[in-house]
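re: ur question from earlier - yeah i can do the single chain one, its not a big deal. heres the input i used so u can compare w yours
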Amino acid sequence: MPKTISAVNARKALGQVMNEVVLTGSEYIVERDGKPMVAIVSCEKYGIMERARKDAKDILKNIRGKMEGASDKEIDSLVSEGVKAVRGLV
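and the output i got, formated as C-alpha cells:
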C-alpha cells in the first residue's frame, strides 16, 4: 500500500523519500490539495511496469491483426484470449 505525502512535504524530504523507496521498496503518492498527482516508485519497479505495458501493447497489436476480417464469434474469442493474456502479465 503506497504512503501518501503532500507535495510540500515531498519537496522538503525528497532525499529521505528517495532513500526509503530504494532501500525498503516503499511507494509514495504525492498529493496537492488532497488530490493524488504523481507516484514515486523505484526505477526497478518502473522498469517492470514499462515492460508490462509494452507486452500488453504487443498482445493488443497481435490481436488487432488477427481481427481484420474476422466474424463476431471470432472477435469474441480473440478478446477473451487477449484478456487472459494480459491478466497473465500482471
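DSSP finds four helices and three strands in the chain. not sure if urs matches, ping me
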